[in-house]
């Protein structure tokens, strides 16, 4: 269950909490806002805060920026979360009594009468329309520009995205309402009736879930989108596992300077625990990227074993390649031949004025089946529909 930063800060302001607990809770809030805070960085922050003095807000802020932030994009989020987490304290984090909270407003039951003339019904309709409009705006917002509070609502929207696994036809047949004549079942039914004619049995080719392979770029250029993309991978994993036809299999990998298998982490039921496990497993979070080499490693270790054969492969990357683009093109072409469908998701694809000028993007465009945007909840929903496809082989 996700708790807002202000509510968490108010709860930790009670006198029975130690300073280390408050600082540790701040690191959790920072991770929820999209800053990749690893356990090593969290421990370094606690040590630095103890060295400079935990009651000096300026010193703790400088220590946090030095130990918890891994890229320039993290600094702005750090400052925003720091202010929202500690704005109600005069110093940080000194124990003191917290004034009692104002009682929450009690919701009144709606009146059964309509058109009473006092304008209450019109006001309620305006509130509903305003709430729906805010949610709709959030669906189309770039996830890299959201505040901490908006990210919490974004996580709720991602958890509610409808997921249906793609399906493939197999050689076996199954009974069905229509299709082709099942002569064997029809004859057996007639024999049970002593030769009397009965109902005609029909059959169709059975369907099974098609495998989905997700390759998520977690390099520095993709850091603002990595949290949302991994949450999308978790939603796809849980949704396909609970889908029809026996559930589907989703394999997730992280692409950076090396390849990391994240399927076990994504199978955790709680998305927060899944993201923490994924962060602990990735050794090169927010580092460089060598897409060609990591895709080659995927092909040698997993692709040749059949993991990508007949699967829907989704690469989530902005296409910034520091290595050889010729190798990248060769590996993407090889991946496209092995897969049923190859989808490339670029967070910048849906932004105004975007042009595929990066060398990596130009190298892979001839070999992808779909080149789509991936920067908002609306584009994530469209991606899930593409992955679902026509649900047939």
Briefly summarize what is shown.
With 393 residues, the protein is of the alpha/beta class.
Describe the 3D structure:
With 393 residues, this protein is α/β, with parallel strands linked by helices. The chain has three domains: 5-86; 170-208, no CATH class; 210-388, 3-Layer(aba) Sandwich (Rossmann fold), CATH 3.40.50. It has helices spanning 5-12, 19-32, 39-52, 57-68, 72-86, 120-139, 148-159, 183-192, 223-241, 263-266, 271-281, 291-301, 325-338, 359-364, 377-388; strands spanning 167-176, 180-181, 202-209, 212-217, 250-255, 259-261, 312-316, 341-346, 370-373. The protein has a six-stranded mixed sheet. The chain has a three-stranded antiparallel sheet with strand order 1-3-2. A hairpin with a 3-residue loop joins strand 5 and strand 6. The radius of gyration is 26 Å and the shape is elongated. Mean pLDDT is 80; it is low at 88-121.
